[in-house]
Amino acid sequence: MLPPPPCPLALQITAANTDAAAGACPAGDGADTITLARDISISQQLPPITSEITIEGNGYTLSGNGSFRLLDVDGGALTIRDMTLADGNASVGGAIRLRNGARVSATNLRFRDNEATKGGAIATVSDDVWLHVEGSSFIGNWATDDGGALLADGGTVNVANSSFQGNAAGKFGGALASRRGRVEVSNSTLSGNEANEGGGIHINGAYTTLTHLTLMNNRARQIVGAGVFKRSGPVLLRNSIVAGSGSGDDCFGDLDESRGNFSQDGTCATPEGGDPLLGELFGSPAYHPLRDASPAHGAADPAFCLPTDQLGNPRAHCDIGAMESERTASEQPPPERVIAADCTLADQIIAANTDAPAGACPAGQGADTIRLRESIVLDAPLPPITSQVTIDGKGYTVDGDNRFSVFEVVGGQAVFKNLRLINGRGAGEEGGAIDAHTDAEILISQVTFTNNTANSGGAVAVHGGRAGIYNSHFLDNSAEDKGGAIWFDATCYDIGNLELEGNSSTTRRPYWSGIDERDTPSGCGAGTGIFVRDG
After folding, report:
1. Which listed residue, 26, 140, 244, 281, has the most CB atoms within 10 A of its CB?
2. Is 393 a member of any domain?
């Protein structure tokens, strides 16, 4: 047991590393065990762990007091269990950093409110490290850049029977950023995590295997990959639920294997799955139980069925996701919402605005998603959008026929994604493809704007509202006055990863802002990654 002061934790680690007495602490002897007897809040950085040490937490908390990394494992072997690691702060790995051959086995831990530039709770930073996390919870951790809870940047990483909830990253991977090495995550729940891209998981290089996961209610601020975002590296997604992504995509990028999955919007698995019918988040490590009528019951691929679920229960009939549960045979999934073939885009917008039937279209249901089924050439203006609507183009085109502005947004929040908007003409002299008014908020991702024209904002005009435009292309749009591609006179705006080519205006600027940057609220303003070619 950890002796009382004057034998503090720092000297216990030093004694264990050196097998020599440190202060009032007795000498370590080979593989040492430190057993906590109270909560500890450190006031200075603990020494690196360079030997074989076990920390028995006994349910206590080790806090970095918002100022220090908790544990730096530098070539040592750490076994740690049954405790909370909280309020760590470092440039890399707020709670634990692994480097130079480090080995860490973490069981029944709670990583809470840790912060770093990369890897809010844990970061691996060497190719020769090994990390195993079992039965643990990552809650409310934050990374300024990548990996809100965990950054895998080398080595072998295995996470099982764990949960990630409410973690966030300023850039990539709200829960997990998978960069280098091999990463396996199984029987785990990722819920309510957030990042610009990859609200749940962002993969950019590591060989990543994801089996029996539940990814629910994760958010990508730039729309793409709210659940799983693949930029590069092999990604195998198996027997997993990805849903609740709101206006974002469940998955983004070409998965190398997708077997036995359930995807609400169909981006991780086909066909679109609809509502997975999960219960509220519960327990620790937290999970979403399957409701009796969930379509995930018994639907996983048996080739990848694990013996037990997140709680250790046997997988009797192999449900998709982190949890296995009993099913009431008499309860059936609700009927699918059918969109009639003659339900037009115009009527779908009216139904979404009014939450009432319109033409052949069923009533909207609060926040609605309209998914295009074919390309469309407008023969009349579309109704203005006034509610919370997502237009998912599924790669199709809406053509304004050189007569009409394609979309007008006068209120609510409109999201446009996976879409081509061409030949729009600004009817109100602004916004050839999208014209957003004072009380509106728009988000645009993965949209190509071509040959649209207006007096200001050849493709997009935003006056008085809020806007985010990401990962989109603006080609050969024109304005007689300002903003051949985009015109902002907005309360708040953000842009990133845009390609502008061949746009023109009398100001000779394809991108023009009508607001003073000094008056832009914090967190808004001009974004990054703008590529301009030939005006």
Report:
1. 244
2. yes
Amino acid letter, 529: G
Phi, psi dihedrals of residue 486, rounded to the nearest 5°? -135, 140
Residue 33's contacts (CB-CB under 8 Å, 6 or more residues apart) are: 53, 54, 55, 56
The range of the structural domain enclosing residue 207 comes to 64-263
Can you say how many angstroms the Cα of residue 332 is from the centroid of all Cα atoms in its chain? 31
* Pairing mode of beta strands 478-479, 504-505: parallel
At 182, list the tokens.
């091999």
* 519 C-beta neighbours (distance < 10 Å), count: 9
How far is it, in rounded angstroms, from Cα 160 to Cα 447?
37
For residues 483 and 456, what is the distance between their CA atoms, to the nearest angstrom? 6
Ranges of residues in the chain whose predicted pLDDT is under 50 = 1-3, 329, 510-523, 525-535
Q: Is the pTM of this model over 0.85?
A: yes
User: Residue 354 burial (CB < 10 Å; 0-12/13-18/19+)?
Assistant: middle
Q: Which of 224, 247, 263 is the last residue of a domain?
A: 263
Q: What is the pLDDT of residue 528?
A: 42
Do the Cβ atoms of 164 and 183 come closer than 8 Å? no
Total domains, the chain: 2
Q: 177 lies in a domain?
A: yes
